[in-house]
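Now for one record.
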Amino acid sequence: MDVIEIKAYVPAKDFELSTQFYRDLGFNVELLGPEMAYLNIGTSSFLLQNFYVKEHAENFMMHMLVENVDGWWQKVVSQKLSDRYGVMAIAPVDQPWGIRDFVLTDPTGVLWRIGQVIHCD
């Protein structure tokens, strides 16, 4: 009983706005219809759904490990995602659990922690 993959269904309050936000962040977007899109970078993916419940969206979190967190942060800054989409973006910090990460919310309020593994001494 092998598992092929597991995907999260990420909520979107404004489906078109969220789709464009994720494109600008660097995800490939394949629309699966008016209510859902398949988003991926390489072999990592999730489904964006045209679904919104405030309490659910504001308690939804995604975690993405990358090879170069500072490069991703520069993309967020250079694309001016915080200003353009009115989202929160907090610069990278070295965490005591061995991850350097930054925080980014999407236009719906979904919180993303984007980070890379670092060595802890």
Observations:
- The longest helix spans residues 15-25.
- The CA atoms of residues 12 and 56 lie 11 Å apart.
- The two ends are 39 Å apart (CA to CA).
